[in-house]
Automatic annotation (TrEMBL), chain A:
One of its GO terms (cellular component) is membrane protein complex. Keywords: ATP-binding, Nucleotide-binding, Translocase, Transport. PANTHER family: ABC TRANSPORTER DOMAIN-CONTAINING PROTEIN, LIPOPROTEIN-RELEASING SYSTEM ATP-BINDING PROTEIN LOLD. PROSITE patterns: ABC_TRANSPORTER_1, ABC_TRANSPORTER_2. It holds the Pfam family ABC_tran. Signal peptide: none annotated. Belongs to the ABC transporter superfamily. Macrolide exporter (TC 3.A.1.122) family. This is ABC transporter ATP-binding protein. GO terms for molecular function: ATP binding; ATP hydrolysis activity; transmembrane transporter activity. The keyword Nucleotide-binding applies.
Automatic annotation (TrEMBL), chain B:
GO terms for molecular function: transmembrane transporter activity. Residues 24-232 form the MacB-like periplasmic core domain. The keyword Transmembrane helix applies. It comes from Pedobacter frigoris. Signal peptide: none annotated. GO terms for cellular component: plasma membrane. This is FtsX-like permease family protein. Keywords: Cell membrane, Membrane, Transmembrane, Transmembrane helix. It is a multi-pass membrane protein. It comes from the Bacteria.
Length: 232, 797
């Protein structure tokens, strides 16, 4: 599903250039759950941003379902993103001025889904995520775990082919963190491809494959046996 | 989507109530200033356009073909002559207007009497409301038309038609035959009572009328055609050499005509330009403020932008969102502006000394132009932030509140500098204008204008002696005099001549006055002596007044006629010693003394040579009363009462001489008034903007401040840190405007012959005011953040 080749990303400031990604090659199959690990500053979030079309690399190619995405302009990128991808962030990134319901509804609005259909889809996912009684609340009225549930709900409401998660449990305590990880596993089992950036090997153990980055290079790739057997 | 954006917008405004209201308030202040100035400028431009034939009406001017002199004074028959000689001239009339107090029943009214011809109504659009018939109007010599406003005042609750009013002493009263609509404020002339004029219609260049003459051209005629035809008539009607006719379009009179005989003080197109520029500058400041505050505020919203981008919002959609958010402010501000403008217009009118109301300036054009300006500025103000914000990369914005916007704040700095530059410029101008006005009012005019009352022109009789005696017995009255000198308008007479064998053109202003004139106006004698009763020759001259003398004796008497010259006159005639005999132009007599430069006209021009003539027994002219009292109003009342007692049939008006002279500088005072208001507005807007910027800057720097505090920074260190950049920006702004302000203000000052020399103080003051306000604004806002405990701040971060 994803084929990344010879990807290079450089951050420039007035004085220094930092190579965040250097000659990255990466393939992700449909239905896979891939974890990207590595020390701080190794480039894992940058890689995720590039995969989510949130950032532009300098060199390389990025095929998604046989479409080359790197040549797209801003509008095309936005369109592609909203149709195919969902995002979950460490800091949830909910819009403070919108209620839970409205936050989840937002991607559907950008996808130009009719109002009644929007309502149905949002209610469906709210129920599935077990946050029905919170739908009228504003993000700051929720606990971290609840906020992340809303964020996951928002990522899933458009039924994306790929979910990109950036340290989804980073701001949560372990029990809430586990809940979120279980949620992602369920999704994966239902067929959604997931790429997750994480620091925690506990979280990574939920995935099929773990990719280790250091200084912008892929230094190792490891299949997660337990999970793969489960999958089989 | 629109609904959800609207929700976000309103919830955001509510969440940031303080900054949102600063933003809205600044916008309201800025837009209100602009709408006010638009209203005022449109009002000035609308002069005389209410006349349906405005584009075909021209006023006759005569110009010197080899000089700059332009005048509306010319022989009275000009219009009649043109009507006969030039078929393109359809109609014509003239207006002779004077202001006088009149008595109706027991009440006094100060009215403007307009003497004109029946054709008045062919040219000027003044509706006949009641009574009089359009075809027969102004045919009778003792017929009067009165304005609706005057009719209502003078005859409350009854019809004015059929009533009589007397306009002069001992003359047949006029019968009111009709009521006319009031002449709009934006007209270059006004009148309360219209009567038929009986001015003799001759083209005789030995006598000029001061009544301006107007012609109406036939449709499709260009003024050039008429002027071309006039050329061939110059000889026939004996036009003096180098004198040509000029046609001043009616609608240009108010802003473009500056002759000495204008019916009412005109404005100047120059001021319209200045006001338009000031309006644009204020608008720019307001727009810049808005941009600064919006961009600063949206830093806090970078997460929202990022999330929306991630969720698939296109740049276009985000742009639309931010544009519409800005428009919420503009719509709200516009709404408020139009609500408060109704009260602001009369206020502004008051400051400018023009009595305008909202309904007089409120029209579709004003609304249209104001709205266009608002929409356009709204677009600019909204567009820049929308562009900047929608362009941010989602990956950057999602990192959250980084405090960096594209452009690194360089543009923001530029905007702040720009705002303060405008404010400083307006402040420097305001200060110089006021210093000049102060200089004018304190300038030694060669006579003392304080505690002096002056009447309008009166032709009195021998009762004057009794009045004078009674008045001088009053406490607080020092002296009294009568003369032809009309302050700021004319000295009484002019004589110009060239001597044989000499090409120099001499000009002399002449004042005819009585013995006490010098004392009353405290005019100092520099050389020789003043007029005195003790001199037998002078006494004889004014006792016999030349009656029953032979021509030779008369001549002798004339040669002993005492003349006083002001310094300018003495210099112009090259008179070094007193007791010189003069026989040139209108000057005949003996110079007995030289007095200080007596300057009774506008200080825009150099003092003129003035000769003072003695007319000891005169009873016609302007009466001056010099007081010496601590209670001016009471003394004035006594004087007025005495006048009424001695001249029950002569209504006159006493005015303070200093106030009378101030009227010469009406447009300068208007300029000053506008500048002080809008300079204040500009600096106020700058401070509001600064407050907003500091507010957001502090949010970005909370952590930095906390860390510095932990490391041992004092309150002073932190205040200096916060102020430093702004102080530098303000200094730069001031330095930038110095040359511009210097050039502009020097240009304005050069319109005065007597002017202050430009010092560096206004520049220093403007800079100090900017600095103090900046440091106050920044420090006040910064203190609360600085005082926070660093522990809380760092934990929060």
């Amino acid at each position: 599903m994803i084929r990344i080749e010879k990807l290079e990303k450089i951050y420039k400031t007035e004085e220094i250039e930092t190579t965040a990604l250097n000659d990255i090659n990466l393939h992700v199959k449909e239905g896979e759950f891939v974890s990207i690990m590595g020390p701080s500053g190794c480039g894992k979030s940058t890689l995720l941003n590039v995969m989510g079309l949130l950032d532009k690399p300098e060199k390389g190619s990025y095929h998604f379902m046989d479409t080359e995405l790197l040549g797209l302009n801003d509008r095309e990128r936005a369109n592609f993103r909203k149709r195919n991808m969902g995002f979950v962030f460490q800091n949830f990134n909910l819009i403070d001025e919108l209620t839970v319901f409205e936050n989840i509804e937002l991607p559907l609005i950008y996808n130009k889904i009719a109002t009644s259909e929007r309502k149905r889809l949002v209610n469906e996912i709210i129920e599935r995520m077990n946050i029905v009684n919170r739908s009228g609340h504003f993000p700051q009225q929720l606990s971290g775990g609840q906020q992340q549930r809303v964020a996951v709900a928002r990522a899933l409401v458009t039924k994306p082919k790929l979910v990109l998660a950036d340290e989804p449990t980073g701001n949560l305590d372990s029990s809430h963190g586990n809940e979120v990880m279980e949620l992602l596993c369920e999704l994966n089992e239902a067929g959604t491809t997931i790429v997750m950036v994480t620091h925690s090997s506990h979280d990574a153990s939920f995935s099929n494959r773990i990719i280790n980055l250091k200084d912008g290079h892929v230094i190792s790739e490891k299949m997660n046996k337990g999970r793969n057997e489960e999958l089989i | 989507m629109f609904r959800i954006n609207l929700k976000i917008a309103f919830r955001n405004i509510w969440k940031n109530r303080l900054t949102a209201s600063i933003k809205l308030f600044g916008l309201i202040a800025g837009l209100a200033s602009v709408v006010l100035l638009v209203a005022y400028v449109l009002f000035e431009l609308s002069y005389d356009r209410h006349n349906l034939n405005a584009d075909r009406i021209y006023r006759l001017h005569v110009v010197q073909t080899d000089g700059e002199n332009e005048s509306i004074h010319m022989p009275s028959g000009m219009v009649e002559m043109m009507k006969q000689e030039i078929p393109e001239v359809e109609e014509g009339t003239y207006l002779s207007i004077y202001e006088t107090p009149i008595q109706v029943d027991r009440n006094m009214f100060k009215v403007k009497i307009l003497r004109t011809t029946a054709s008045f109504f062919d040219l000027f659009t003044v509706p006949l409301k009641e009574g009089a018939d359009r075809n027969t109007v102004l045919k009778e010599p003792k017929e009067a038309l009165v304005s609706a406003a005057f009719a209502k005042q003078a005859f409350p609750g009854q019809s004015a038609i059929g009533k009589t009013i007397s306009l002069n002493l001992n003359s047949t009263p006029y019968l009111i035959s009709g009521i006319i609509g009031d002449i709009p404020k934006a007209s270059h002339f006004h009148g309360d009572i219209l009567v038929k004029s009986n001015l003799k219609q001759v083209v005789n260049w030995r006598g000029y009328t001061s009544a301006p003459q107007y012609i109406l051209l036939k449709k499709g005629t260009s003024p050039a055609t008429v002027l071309a035809k006039m050329k061939s008539l110059y000889k026939k009607y004996q036009f003096p050499e180098k004198i040509a006719l000029k046609l001043m379009p009616l609608t240009d009179i108010h802003l473009h005509s500056h002759t000495s005989g204008e019916l009412e003080p005109n404005s100047d197109i120059k001021y319209i330009y200045i006001f338009s520029i000031v309006a644009s500058l204020i608008l720019l400041i307001a727009v810049v403020n808005f941009i600064n505050l919006t961009v600063a505020a949206s830093l806090k919203r970078s997460k929202e932008i990022g999330v929306k981008k991630v969720l698939g919002a296109s740049m276009q959609q985000l742009k639309v969102q931010f544009l519409s958010e800005s428009y919420i402010y503009f719509i709200a501000a516009t709404f408020v502006v139009f609500l408060i403008i109704m009260d602001l217009i009369p206020l502004l009118g008051n400051r400018l000394g023009i009595n305008i109301t909202f309904s007089e300036v409120f029209n579709l054009k004003m609304i249209g132009i104001s709205l266009t300006i608002i929409v356009l500025s709204g677009f600019i103000a909204a567009f820049y932030p929308a562009m900047v914000l929608s362009r941010m990369m989602p990956a950057d914005t999602l990192k959250g509140y980084t405090g960096h916007i594209p452009g690194k704040g360089g543009f923001k700095k530029f905007l702040v500098v720009f705002q303060f530059a405008i404010s400083a410029l307006l402040m420097v101008c305001t200060m110089v204008i006021y210093s000049q006005l102060k200089y004018i009012s304190n300038k030694n005019l060669g006579f003392d204008k304080d505690q002096v009352l002056v009447t309008s022109y009166n032709m009195l009789d021998n009762r004057f002696t009794g009045f004078k005696e009674a008045l001088l017995k009053e406490k607080g009255v020092k002296s009294l005099s009568i003369s032809t000198f009309n302050p700021g308008v004319s000295y009484g007479g002019t004589s110009s001549w060239t001597n044989d064998g000499d090409t120099t053109k001499y000009e002399m202003e002449m004042v005819y006055c009585d013995l006490d004139f010098m004392k009353t106006l405290d005019i100092k004698v520099l050389k020789g002596r003043s007029f005195s009763e003790a001199t037998p020759a002078e006494l004889k001259a004014f006792n016999t007044e030349g009656q029953g003398l032979t021509e030779k004796q008369q001549r002798e008497l004339e040669m002993r006629n005492p003349i006083l010259l002001n310094e300018a006159a003495a210099k112009s005639l090259n008179i070094k010693n007193v007791d010189t005999l003069l026989l040139a132009g209108g000057l005949q007599g003996k110079v007995i003394g030289v007095v200080t430069d007596f300057n009774g006209m506008s200080l825009h021009n150099k003092v003129k040579p003035v000769a003072l003539y003695l007319q000891p027994k005169t009873t016609s002219g302007y009466t001056y009363v010099k007081m010496e009292t601590d209670d001016l109003p009471a003394t004035r009342k006594t004087i007025e009462a005495l006048w009424k007692k001695h001249f029950p049939d002569v209504v006159t008006e006493f005015q303070f001489l200093d106030q009378y002279l101030e009227k010469l500088y009406v447009s300068e005072m208007r300029l000053g008034s506008i500048f002080i208001v809008f300079a204040g507005m500009a600096i106020f807007l700058c401070c509001i903007g600064l407050f907003g910027i500091v507010y957001y800057e502090l949010e970005q720097k909370t952590k930095e401040i906390a860390i510095r505090k932990v490391l041992g920074a004092s309150l002073n260190d932190l205040l200096t840190l916060m102020n430093k950049n702004f102080v530098i920006m303000v200094l730069i702004a001031n330095v930038i405007i110095w040359p511009i302000a210097y050039l502009l203000i020097n240009k304005w000052l050069s319109t005065f012959y007597y002017r202050i020399s430009l010092s560096y103080w206004p520049f220093v003051w403007a800079m100090l005011i900017c600095l103090v306000l900046t440091i106050l604004t920044v420090s006040l806002k910064a203190l609360s953040t600085i005082k926070k405990s660093p522990v809380d701040t760092l934990k929060y971060e």
